[in-house]
Amino acid sequence: MDIQTRTIPERRLAVISQELFQPQLDEFIPAAFGDLFEWAQRRPGVRALNTTPDEPTYVIFHGPVTPQASALVEVCAVIRSDAEPEGRIALRTEDQHEEAFTSITREQLEFPHILGAYDAVAMWVMQNGSMIESMPGREVYFADVMSEPMDALVCDVTFPFVRH
Q1: Among 28, 41, 100, 116, which one has the highest count of C-beta atoms within 10 angstroms of its own C-beta?
Q2: Which of 21, 96, 91 is nearest to 61 (CA)?
Q3: Does residue 36 carry a pLDDT above 90?
């Protein structure tokens, strides 16, 4: 896989989080994104109402999520302005950082195919630096996954890291 790096600026995030097992992801992730976009729609100027490279959405995994093991999962939307949290939506700022990533198609996004992308990026990071423990691996969506064809690039699998 083609592994690249980029610097991510400090970003403000709207976040919905929950401890989950892998079978729960298919329901939780779309519902959480729906809630985040409904919240943003009620707050003009907070962000665009679609996912773009400039205003991506994330899913951050704070540990392995399998049918047998749960971990904290955060569904995030980059926001432009200060806003107030609401219900299960929390707000936080994520520091500027460098991340290693590989871009994948909608088809490659499916479990267990996506695991190869995580393994490739993690191995690259281990060979070239070290992971930032407070910023776990994530899927950064730069397109609307559901409206794209299966062979379209829709997501970057990323790991924030510090270069050695």
Answers
A1: 100
A2: 21
A3: yes
The domain that contains 151 carries what CATH number? 3.20.80.10
CA nearest neighbour of 132 among 3, 44, 8, 2? 8
pLDDT band at 86 (very low <50, low <70, confident <90, very high): very high
pLDDT tens figures, 108-161: 998 889 999 999 999 999 999 999 999 999 999 999 998 999 999 999 999 999
Task: Find out whether 134 and 88 touch, Cβ atoms under 8 Å.
Answer: no
CB 42 within 8 A of CB 14: no
CA distances from 71 to 18, 29, 74, 107 (A): 8, 14, 10, 24
Provide the 10 A C-beta neighbour count for residue 51: 24
Question: What is the count of structural domains for the chain?
Answer: 1
List the domain range (segments joined by +) for residue 28.
4-163
Separation of CA 118 from chain center: 12
Angle at 45 between CA 41 and CA 47, to 5 degrees: 70
- Is there a contact between 157 and 104 (Cβ–Cβ < 8 Å)? yes
The whole-angstrom separation of Cα 137 and Cα 121 is 9
